[in-house]
Structures are given as C-alpha cells and as structure tokens.
Amino acid sequence: MQTQVPPLLLILIFHTSASLICTHNCEQTFNISQPFNGFGHSCGRPVENAYRCYVKMQFFFHLNEVTTFLETDTSSDQDFIRIEPNRTKHFFYQIAHGCNHSDDCARIFAEKKMIEMKEKAYDVTYILNDFDSLLSRTDTNQELTCYDGNRTTDQCSTPDKLCFLEHNQISDETNALSCPQEYINPTVNIIVNDEGVGARLYVRCSRRLCNTAETVNEVKHILFKHKITDKNGRTRSWTTNIGITPIGVSFKIILALLFICIVNLK
User: Fold this and answer.
1) Is the pLDDT confidence value at 160 over 70?
2) How many structural domains are present in the chain?
C-alpha cells in the first residue's frame, strides 16, 4: 500500500523553508571614524518569503568611508581587496555575504562586521608605504626586467610596464608574467580575491625581477602584520561561511516533522 504524506506536513515544510525575512534595497554610507549606531529603520524595506539575505560592504579606507548595500540576492560570498600604494594611494576592501539561517541575517552580519573592521583601525599611510617600498622602483628611466612564465628573464620595452604574478592561495602555486599588456595607466597594486573555495593573490610590481614566490611571501607578511588577512593571505575562516548556512534551522525543523510523520504512519 502506498503511503501518502499528510497535506498539513507539506504545508509546514513549505512554510518553514520559505519564511525568511530580509532587508532589501537599503544603501547607506558611513564615516569609518565616526561611531556606528546601526542601520536606520527607514532604510530599505523588509521582504518576506525571501530565498536569501545578502549584503555588500565597500570600505574605501583611503577616503575613510564605507557604503553598504542590503538586498535579497543569490550571489556567492566574496572578499575583494585592492591596494594601490603609490600613484592613486588607494585601499579598497569589499565584503559580500549571503545567508538564510535566520531573519535579516545579512543585516546582523553587516553590523558585526562594521564594528570588527572599525576596531582594526588601519593606518592607511603605513600600509601604503610598506607596499610601496616592497613593490615600487625609484629609478623609472631604465628598462624593467621581469620573470616570465618559464622563469627566464625578459626586459620590458617601455618604462611604464610592470611585472605581474598570480598566486593560487589553495594550491600555493605562483605564475609569473613578464610585461603584460595593460589597458590604461598601469599601476603597482595588490589584489586579493577570496571566495572560500577559491582564492587568488595578484601583484603588479616595478622592481627588477619582483614577480616571484618570495614577493608573495613578503606581501602576505605585510597583509598579516596590518591585520588585513591571516598569515596565509586569507580574509576569513570560510568553514563557518560556506556549506553550513544554506538550510539552517528550517532544515532541522523539517527533519523533525518528517520523523514524526514516519513514526505515525507505521
């Protein structure tokens, strides 16, 4: 005899898995040096039966500003850092986070992250100077020599060319590229792109033979010294952010209901 699941159970399952409330269409800009008192209640609007809460936080530390966007989105988590130590003196840090384990979980995450980032009290000038000393050359009249992908040397034909490297944070492999073609105004910079399951570090530098694994280690050391990343160049403990939150409390409720149903049908 075929066993049917009671309609009431189906309704409960749907309700518990689709009853998430998220703040949507909320954008606010704050001064990082000023006290943070949370997001205004009038910012955005609550959305019921949302699939996922989402927040994007953009810290412009060189401007002492942060802009946050609260919405409903299915985009994946990502931390993105871009530091340009000489020409533009730019320190940008973007944090994107999605969750559905509790109502307004992205808003709660953002409020905690805001306090955490403010407490780091980054000395932007000190950070930029450290990277400038490591990656920038003082004599711009001579041709630049870089390593290419085969670990042989190559000279860049124009003074504004840069050495480039890409480091895979997961496999710990470094690939060098000599004098890459830049679209416009190439500048020395460091980029960290961390998505949990994938993480890469990119470096453009103008010192002779600077695109090496040794430079990667020095960059990681500076990032760690200033509490921008951990000692391995990672931005956060991703084990608490991926693979655990997608179902959360609702999943436990559903399992309990299914167990009760099976017992009653025997």
Assistant:
1) no
2) 2
